């Protein structure tokens, strides 16, 4: 599609404020050209299936050796299932129903929230990178800044406001616990990451993936890493989330009652640090591999931010997920972050320069979702 065509189609779609759900409700049987994925994305949808031994790790928060297990999952995968996390299944179900309820409303009820202005607390939109991306994705989003200052109940959509506030509090306690465990896994004092304000800010992302008439021609959310320290993801039972690991796209099959945790770009620390300590040559090799992965910031690459995506929803039911990103996301935050000094040594020098999260979000909003961002901060 010509880029002017694309741009005017994107503008018309945005101005209609009906989202992908509105297109589906209008009875379309073919996806509009705007949503046709690029040849590279379509080719990647046909990539070979992963070998059976590659299975997503599960961390049991009440199990034995939880610090080692969480550290290993964060280093090797950057994404894992979390069970026995203490949040009642009934709360998880109400959260999914709330977000689904919002998106399933009539367009008129949603339109007043439609916005891309991140000074607002609550925003409904379709495709964060609609104007920048080469192809739009088959999903709509309800975004909300839930911490440090939660919005007032009366400013939230009536259908999901109460559960949004309740769930975000639950995830705040869980997030604090996860940051403690991750600090310990890094060999730091358990308060270290929390004291760096990693758990301070939250942005809730209520994603909705309506059934797609041509799921092989588009994508639900393009491959990306999250601009967060950590993301806690709740998905319903439809499926479609995949993580890129050892050059394979691997299904993150829904596990009832479990949450998916993924490490974001700010927390990437990667195993290179350990390797660097032990062997200079293998470190050089791993360093090159890591460059490919796009390295993560404050852990100087010990943990990896997991690249993930969601394929377009080919089922007859909508798919709903709720991601809480521990991040200031698009809001200005002037605190300066850089690789944690305690993790650095002569053999493991800083790989990233200090930066503010504002610099990160400025880059994020000027790029497509799938564009790597971390290399902008490499030394
Ligand atoms: O819907 C999902 O499972 C993933 C959503 C996601 O990756 C995001 O909101 O960043
Ligand atoms: Fe994500």
Automatic annotation (TrEMBL):
Transmembrane segments: 274-293
Pfam families membership: 2OG-FeII_Oxy (PF03171), DIOX_N (PF14226)
Keywords (A to Z) from UniProt: Dioxygenase, Iron, Membrane, Metal-binding, Oxidoreductase, Transmembrane, Transmembrane helix
PROSITE patterns in the record: FE2OG_OXY
InterPro entries attached to this UniProt entry: DIOX_N, IPNS-like_FE2OG_OXY, IPNS-like_sf, Oxoglu/Fe-dep_dioxygenase_dom
Gene3D superfamilies: B-lactam Antibiotic, Isopenicillin N Synthase, Chain
Domain Fe2OG dioxygenase positions: 200-332
Superkingdom: Eukaryota
GO molecular function, one term: metal ion binding
PANTHER family referenced in this protein's UniProt entry, alphabetically: 1-AMINOCYCLOPROPANE-1-CARBOXYLATE OXIDASE HOMOLOG 4-RELATED, OXIDOREDUCTASE, 2OG-FE II OXYGENASE FAMILY PROTEIN
UniProt record similarity statement: Belongs to the iron/ascorbate-dependent oxidoreductase family.
Protein name: Non-hem dioxygenase N-terminal domain
Organism encoding this protein: Arabidopsis thaliana x Arabidopsis arenosa
């Amino acid at each position: 599609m010509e880029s002017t065509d694309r741009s005017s189609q994107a503008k018309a779609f945005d101005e209609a404020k009906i989202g992908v759900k509105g297109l589906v409700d209008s009875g379309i049987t073919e996806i509009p050209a705007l949503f046709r994925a690029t040849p590279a994305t379509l080719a990647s949808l046909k990539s070979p299936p992963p070998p059976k031994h590659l299975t997503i790790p599960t961390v049991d928060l009440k199990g034995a050796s939880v610090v080692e297990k969480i550290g290993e999952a964060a280093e090797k995968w950057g994404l894992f299932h979390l069970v026995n996390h203490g949040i009642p299944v009934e709360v998880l179900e109400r959260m999914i129903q709330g977000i689904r309820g919002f998106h399933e409303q009539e367009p008129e009820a949603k339109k007043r929230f439609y916005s891309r202005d991140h000074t607002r607390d609550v925003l409904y939109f379709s495709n964060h990178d609609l104007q920048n991306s080469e192809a739009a994705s088959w999903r709509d989003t309800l975004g909300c800044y839930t911490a440090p200052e939660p919005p007032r109940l009366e400013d939230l959509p009536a259908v999901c406001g109460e559960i949004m506030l309740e769930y975000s509090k639950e995830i705040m306690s869980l997030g604090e616990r996860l940051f403690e465990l991750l600090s310990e896994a890094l060999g730091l004092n358990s308060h270290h990451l929390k004291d760096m304000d990693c758990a301070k800010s939250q942005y809730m992302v209520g994603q909705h993936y309506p059934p797609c008439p041509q799921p092989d021609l588009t994508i639900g959310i393009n491959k990306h890493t999250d601009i967060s320290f950590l993301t806690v993801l709740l998905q319903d039972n439809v499926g479609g989330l995949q993580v890129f690991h050892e050059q394979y796209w691997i299904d993150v099959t829904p596990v009832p009652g479990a949450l998916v945790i993924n490490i974001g770009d700010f927390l990437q620390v990667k195993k290179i640090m350990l390797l660097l300590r032990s062997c200079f040559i293998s470190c050089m090799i791993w360093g090159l591999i890591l460059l490919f992965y796009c390295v993560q910031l404050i852990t100087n690459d010990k943990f990896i931010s997991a690249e993930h995506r969601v394929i377009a929803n080919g089922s007859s039911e909508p798919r709903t997920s709720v991601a809480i990103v521990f991040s200031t996301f698009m809001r200005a935050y002037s605190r300066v972050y850089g690789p944690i000094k305690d993790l650095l040594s002569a053999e493991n020098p800083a790989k990233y320069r200090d930066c503010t999260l504002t610099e990160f979000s400025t880059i994020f909003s000027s790029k497509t979702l799938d564009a790597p961002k971390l290399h902008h901060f490499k030394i």
